[in-house]
């Protein structure tokens, strides 16, 4: 770091994104992107707006918020749109957390939570997942702190039920509960309808996974009008043009393509079930994921070795270092053909390890 770098950030450990290698073509199963492109209507909407890039985007995001309100059955004032769901998550950490209002989250979860807390000098605690990697909702009941839980969780893919989430929210009325639903469309149950019932609930979703727009960077937050107003105070204080013209148009078009995306989510779920079953036949332990990825390990080869050997063979998966996760790999679910290639390469590695 330079001599000018502020000491308040000197100890910060930044988030590490998944690999985006350029040196060769890979079967890319490491960053939970959709294997399917957006439908033509989405591409065309973004392309049309590309011809107007000399103009600022609408800071009020009216067309996007109106379409999202219709889609999710909420009011426009109960939604915020952001540059990826990471931005609304950071806004929430900034708006609702400080030294007097710490936050808690699982010990194995999305890595950005601890980064946001450290970046903004927010005290935080982690609560261990159960031995089977599930979140025990009772650990969060009446805890009296702000809470963020990914549901389905990452990298495990395991879910809390809607009733369990509600119990957490209901029992912490003086604290904000953030439910990160980045993967909810692949098998979870959204708690967006609960925002009308509880004024301390914030639900975040992304267009990166189920709506094939990872490269566009678009996220949504759903909450009581007053919470959304708080988040918008930060949005207008940092970057009121946070969603560009092309992304906003793509988002509006994507929300109108429910049939297309529902079919693709179903296909991914089918490929997930197929891959999980094949891995189990090979002796893997595979968690019951409700996301667009699997979390798996085998005693036949270490997690790190499997990751490296697959990479050598042209298949990228995500190896997450950590005391509880080092033997596992997270495998994004792609097309049926991609998963067949992945399984074939796994078999090659296992044969070579004999």
Please provide a written account of the structure.
This protein is an alpha/beta fold and 354 residues long. It folds into 2 domains: 18-37 and 259-353, Aspartate Aminotransferase, domain 1 (Alpha-Beta Complex); 40-256, Aspartate Aminotransferase, domain 2 (3-Layer(aba) Sandwich), CATH 3.40.640. The chain contains 10 helices and 13 strands. It has helices spanning 40-50, 62-72, 84-96, 112-119, 162-170, 225-238, 245-255, 258-281, 303-312, 336-353; strands spanning 27-28, 79-82, 103-106, 124-127, 146-150, 177-180, 201-206, 219-223, 285-286, 293-297, 315-316, 318-319, 329-332. The strands form 3 sheets. The protein has a 7-stranded mixed beta sheet, sandwiched between helices. α2 packs parallel to α7 and α3 crosses α6 (225-238). The radius of gyration is 20 Å and the shape is globular.
Can you summarize this structure?
This protein is of the alpha/beta class and 354 residues long. The protein is 36% helix and 14% strand.
Strand content: 5-15%
Instruction: Using the coordinates shown, work out and report the CATH topology of the largest domain.
Output: Aspartate Aminotransferase, domain 2
Q: CATH homologous superfamily of the largest domain?
A: Type I PLP-dependent aspartate aminotransferase-like (Major domain)
Class of the largest domain, according to the CATH hierarchy? Alpha Beta
Morphology: globular
| Helix vs. strand class | alpha/beta
């Amino acid at each position: 770091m330079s001599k000018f770098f502020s000491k308040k950030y000197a100890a910060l450990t930044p988030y590490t994104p998944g690999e985006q290698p350029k040196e060769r073509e890979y079967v890319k199963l490491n960053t939970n992107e959709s294997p399917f492109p957006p439908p033509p209507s989405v591409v065309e909407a973004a392309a049309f707006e590309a011809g107007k890039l000399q103009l600022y985007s609408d800071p009020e995001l009216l067309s996007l918020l109106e379409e999202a309100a219709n889609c999710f059955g909420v009011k426009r004032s109960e939604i915020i749109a952001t540059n990826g769901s990471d931005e609304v998550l950071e806004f929430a950490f900034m708006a609702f957390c400080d030294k007097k209002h710490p936050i808690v989250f699982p010990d194995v979860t999305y890595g950005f939570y601890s980064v946001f807390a450290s970046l903004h000098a927010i005290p935080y605690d982690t609560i261990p997942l159960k031995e089977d990697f599930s979140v025990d909702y009772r650990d969060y009941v009446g805890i009296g702190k702000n809470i963020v839980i990914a549901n389905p969780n990452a990298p495990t893919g395991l879910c809390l039920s809607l009733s369990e989430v509600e119990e957490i929210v209901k029992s912490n009325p003086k604290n904000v509960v953030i439910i990160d639903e980045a993967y909810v469309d692949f098998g979870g149950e959204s708690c967006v309808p609960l925002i009308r019932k509880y004024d301390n609930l914030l639900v975040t979703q992304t267009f990166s996974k189920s709506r094939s727009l990872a490269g566009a960077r678009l996220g949504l937050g759903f909450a009581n009008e007053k919470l959304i107003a708080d988040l918008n105070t930060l949005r207008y204080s940092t970057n009121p043009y946070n969603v560009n013209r092309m992304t906003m148009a793509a988002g509006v078009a994507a929300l109108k393509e429910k049939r297309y995306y529902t079919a693709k989510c179903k296909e991914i779920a089918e490929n997930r079930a197929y891959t999980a079953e094949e891995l189990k036949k090979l002796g893997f332990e595979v968690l019951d994921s409700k996301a667009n990825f699997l979390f798996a390990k085998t005693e036949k080869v270490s997690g790190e070795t499997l990751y490296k050997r697959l990479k050598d063979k042209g298949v990228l998966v995500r190896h997450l270092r950590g005391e509880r996760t080092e033997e596992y790999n997270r495998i994004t679910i792609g097309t049926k053909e991609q998963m067949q290639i992945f399984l074939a390469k796994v078999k090659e590695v296992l044969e070579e390890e004999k």
